[in-house]
Amino acid sequence: MTSSGTNHSEPAGPGPSDGAPWAAAWELLLPAASAPARARGRTLQAALREAVRTGRLAPGTRLPSSRELAADLGVSRGLVTEAYEQLTAEGYLRSDRGAGTWVGDAVRAAGPRARDLAPRSSGARADFVPGTPDLSLFPRTAWAAAHRGVLAELPHHALGYPDPRGLPRLRIALAELLARRRGVVADPERIVVVSGVAQAMALLGFVLHARGLRTVGVEDPGSPEHGALYASAGIGTVPLPLDGEGLAVGPLKASGVRAVVTTPAHQFPTGIACSARRRAELLDWARSLDGLVIEDDYDGDFRYDRAPVGALQGLDPGHVAYTGSVSKSLAPGLRLGWLLVPASLSEEVVERKRTMDLGNPVVDQALLARFLERGDYDRQLRRCQRAYRERRDALVAALASHFPGTEVSGVAAGLHAIAALPGRYGPLDRFLERTRAAGVAVRPLAQYGTAVEDGLRLVLGYAHLSPARIRDGVALMADAVRD
Ligand SMILES: Cc1ncc(COP(=O)(O)O)c(C=O)c1O
Q1: pLDDT in tens, 63-101
Q2: For residue range 367-393, what is the model confidence (pLDDT) as tens digits?
Q3: CA-angle at 391, arms to 396 and 387, nearest 5°
Q4: Which residue blocks in 270-330 are alpha helix, DSSP H?
């Protein structure tokens, strides 16, 4: 503030030089200060009120003293004192005699607040939403240590724009991980670090669109996100049915698409593991028309009591684009993932990634690299694997005891299960209505596609719920539907 060093009758507030929120709002008040003298007081009050209401001045922000603000705005001190008093009376500001003036806590900004923008929880007593890991298992201590380590070791030049493909160190660590755990043919030169499977799909969508493709096949039932992501790139989707071995090849061939998105390790949502025969058939199809299989390995890290199912990409890297992320193993909020494409698409994908965001944040990339190199990632997977297996077992046992005759499938891997309940608990609409009223959120398999047989089939995510919560949730569900 211009008056620094003067003798204040009120404590000094933060000025623009502090970089405080006040600095931005101060600019807003300048036009008020140059309003005609008659209207100046009223205009100043309105501008200040607006700054508070829109959140430009956040609750708890300390305002400068009336003397300072008056000097900075070039108005009389009385005008500022009056504005402060008026807004304090209205509840926008609060003042402690002699201690200063603050933006009040009770003010509800008209503009969006962090709280308003946060994803809403369902408010259910038990929410079996699929696809969510247990975020309380996030390895905060190891992550914080890796963060400190990275900041200590990163040379200054490494903070410049990264290679759009990602930091070489991370690509090397990812190549080792994906080859070892998923059987991926992973050349670090060809890995692109992306912000999740979502970005991988969008990148592929743009590249395929630029090559003239206007449709891709998607699994039905499948992830609604796939359709939305390709739509964002101007590509339509053709829903393709499954059979007991995975994506059905007959309808795929008949559809005329040249690219298809699939989740072979643990089909979303049915949990089917694509059979060896079906894998070979899918790759034959791709080779026959030089097409592309887009492999979404969204939860391939978690398997419990079945032999590892390696990635399809390992069988034919020339016809498979492979993508995965840390969204299930660490946290979706990290927005970190990877994409490997056939050599023929590589340059176009990297150029798209470059024009989209100039690469992922380098500190995050270095952090994940260090986390992988030091074995922290493997430790995390083992820890989650133990916890999720226990939760899966709790779900299967609770369903057997409360809903005898239920067939549970898709439970050898992943973070969710499919429960086919006996018809006596139906019909589906009544079942959903009653469970909802009891505070239990469940989703019918039918919600994920058109090709779903009738009946009481539920998609139950369990990884984010404790075994006790799972048991309670299933018991609540059973009470709710009992006649
Ligand atoms: C089928 C499927 N693919 C991918 C993802 C994860 O996407 P991302 O890596 O962008 O978080 C999810 C998340 O729920 C999913 O259900």
Answers
A1: 888 888 888 888 999 999 999 888 888 788 888 777 788
A2: 999 999 999 999 999 999 999 999 999
A3: 150
A4: 276-288
In the reported structure, the alpha carbon of residue 70 is separated from the centroid of ligand 1 by a whole-number distance in angstroms of 54
Tell me how far apart the alpha carbons of residues 113 and 414 are, in angstroms, rounded to a whole number.
Answer: 35
C-alpha R_g of the chain: 29
- Tell me how far apart the alpha carbons of residues 363 and 147 are, in angstroms, rounded to a whole number: 8
Q: Which residues pair with 419 in a beta bridge?
A: 408, 458
Query: CB neighbours (10 Å) of residue 48?
Result: 25
- Give CA separation, 181 vs 74, 178, 226, 300, 474, in Å: 68, 5, 25, 9, 34
> Domains in the chain, ordered, with CATH?
16-103 (1.10.10.10), 126-133+379-481 (3.90.1150.10), 139-375 (3.40.640.10)
Residue to probe by mutation, ligand 1, list 132, 223, 263, most atoms within 8 Å of CB: 223
Cα 198 to ligand 1 centroid, rounded to whole Å:
7
Reading the block at residue 244, the tokens are 């007991």
Distance in Å, CA 324 to ligand 1 centroid: 8
Q: Which atom of ligand 1 has the smallest separation from the CA of 132?
A: 14
What is the rounded CA–CA span in Å between residue 269 and residue 251? 19
- CA 197 to ligand 1 center in whole angstroms: 6
Question: Which tens digit of pLDDT belongs to each residue from 421-479?
Answer: 999 998 999 999 999 999 999 999 999 998 767 789 999 999 999 999 999 999 999 99
Cβ(24)–Cβ(56) below 8 Å: yes
- Long-range contacts formed by 388-392: CB under 8 A, 24+ apart: 388/134, 388/302, 388/304, 388/415, 388/462, 388/463, 389/304, 390/467, 391/462, 391/463, 391/465, 391/466, 391/467, 391/470, 392/304, 392/417, 392/462
* DSSP letters for 95-141: EETTTEEEE-SSPPPSS--HHHHSPPP---SEE--TT---GGGS-HH
Residue 453 CA to ligand 1 centre (angstroms): 25
* CA 17 / ligand 1 centre spacing (Å): 44
- Residue 325 CA: nearest ligand 1 atom is 9
Name which of 358, 435, 374 is nearest 147 in CA terms: 374
Residues whose beta carbon lies within 6 Å of some atom of ligand 1: 131, 196-198, 223, 263, 268, 296, 298, 325, 327, 332, 337
Atom of ligand 1 nearest to the CA of 337: 9
Tell me the pTM.
0.78
